[in-house]
């Protein structure tokens, strides 16, 4: 009887060791969830994050939330039940996305936010974010210089539920509002969307034909606004300012079409998030809750130092 029990114990031990060996050979998976792939900047962010995860030995899959919090929620459900080890996350809504991140946290899946902040101090394992406020301050200083501290301008906002929208707007106004001869004649949201910005700008021009500048919350909207100005025959009279460092706007600055943008560094944010996820899987638990990434002013004077989404 004793020999039988010993034999049975050895069989169980061998079985468990075999299972452990099989599990240890399993490839880990990282999910990349982005707000939209209908914007080249977010495509770059997502693909860079996925590429870095793959280079670290992970299977990586990109999920497009299409700026829809409900679809984002579905993605999180699928990611959790599919056994992903970590989520590299670009949220659809600063408040609305918190529940999804908390759901992942309860399931033991760490979330590392890229570029877009969520309004929770501890839901995400870490948030790697552009310093949008300071970047907009830099743009605003250049804006006031270019306009000689006077004139009429329009502001086109991004998604109202995104903290970047308001960080950029507040940073911009912290400078511009100090000059009473700079007058904002219209402020409207275009949801960070190029086509919507074109339509918004066309509508604004019907009511306010005498404007000198447009500040846009991202480069997609800056391109849309510029196209509307071209159609109205005002592109040479109205200065357009963006925010992102997207390829088409970098090209446009070089061609003296767009006045300036704020260069974000999506590669830094995406790769940092992927590295953090890898460290988490390997056992690290102590991560900074928030990491600001500097934004740099790009204009005609320094355009040769930059390429799309970064420095040369």
Mean pLDDT: 93
According to DSSP, the number of beta strands is 14
Strand order of the largest sheet: 2-1-3-4-5-11
Order of helices and strands: HEHEHEHEEHEHEHEHEHEHEEEE
Helix content: 40-55%
Beta-strand residue percentage? 15-25%
Q: What count of helical segments does DSSP give?
A: 10
Give a short account of the largest sheet. Answer: 6 strands, parallel
Question: Spans with pLDDT under 50 lasting ≥5 residues?
Answer: 1-24
User: Cα distance, first to last residue?
Assistant: 75 Å
Whole-angstrom Rg: 24 Å
Structural class label: alpha/beta
Q: Using the alpha-carbon principal axes, give the shape.
A: elongated
Notes on the protein architecture:
With 312 residues, the chain is of the alpha/beta class. It has 10 helices and 14 strands. It has helices at residues 2-24, 40-55, 69-81, 98-106, 132-146, 163-176, 194-207, 219-231, 247-254, 266-281, and strands at residues 29-34, 59-64, 86-89, 111-114, 126-130, 151-157, 182-189, 213-216, 239-241, 260-263, 290-293, 296-299, 306-307, 310-311. The strands form 4 sheets. The chain has a 6-stranded parallel β-sheet with strand order 2-1-3-4-5-11, with helices on both faces. Strands 7-6-8-9 form a 4-stranded parallel β-sheet, with helices on both faces. The radius of gyration is 24 Å and the shape is elongated. It starts with a helix and ends with a strand. Residues 1-24 have low confidence and may be disordered.
């Amino acid at each position: 009887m004793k020999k039988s029990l010993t034999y049975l114990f050895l069989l169980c031990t061998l079985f468990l060791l075999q299972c452990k060996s099989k599990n240890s050979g399993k490839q880990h998976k990282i999910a990349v969830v982005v707000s939209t792939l209908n914007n080249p900047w977010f495509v770059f962010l997502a693909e860079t994050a996925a590429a870095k995860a793959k280079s670290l030995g992970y299977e990586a899959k990109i999920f497009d939330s299409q700026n829809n919090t409900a679809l984002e929620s579905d993605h999180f459900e699928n990611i959790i039940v599919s056994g992903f080890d970590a989520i590299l996350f670009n949220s659809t809504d600063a408040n609305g996305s918190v529940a999804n991140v908390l759901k992942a946290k309860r399931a033991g899946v760490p979330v590392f936010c890229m570029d877009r902040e969520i309004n929770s101090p501890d839901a995400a394992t870490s948030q790697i974010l552009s310093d949008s406020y300071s970047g907009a301050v830099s743009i605003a200083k250049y804006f006031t210089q270019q306009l000689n501290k006077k004139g009429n301008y329009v502001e086109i906002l991004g998604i109202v539920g995104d903290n970047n929208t308001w960080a950029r707007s507040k940073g911009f106004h912290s400078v511009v509002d100090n000059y009473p001869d700079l007058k904002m004649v219209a402020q409207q949201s275009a949801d960070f969307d190029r086509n919507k910005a074109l339509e918004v700008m066309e509508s604004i021009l019907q009511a306010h034909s005498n404007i000198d500048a447009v500040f846009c919350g991202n480069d997609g909207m800056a391109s849309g606004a510029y196209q509307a100005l071209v159609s109205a025959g005002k592109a040479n009279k109205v200065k357009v300012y963006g925010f992102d460092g997207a390829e088409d706007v970098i090209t446009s600055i070089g061609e003296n079409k767009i006045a300036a943008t704020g260069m974000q560094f999506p590669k830094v944010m995406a790769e940092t998030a992927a590295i953090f996820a890898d460290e988490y899987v390997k056992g690290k638990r102590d991560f900074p809750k928030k990491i600001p990434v500097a934004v740099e002013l790009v204009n005609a004077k320094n355009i040769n130092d930059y390429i799309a989404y970064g420095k040369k």
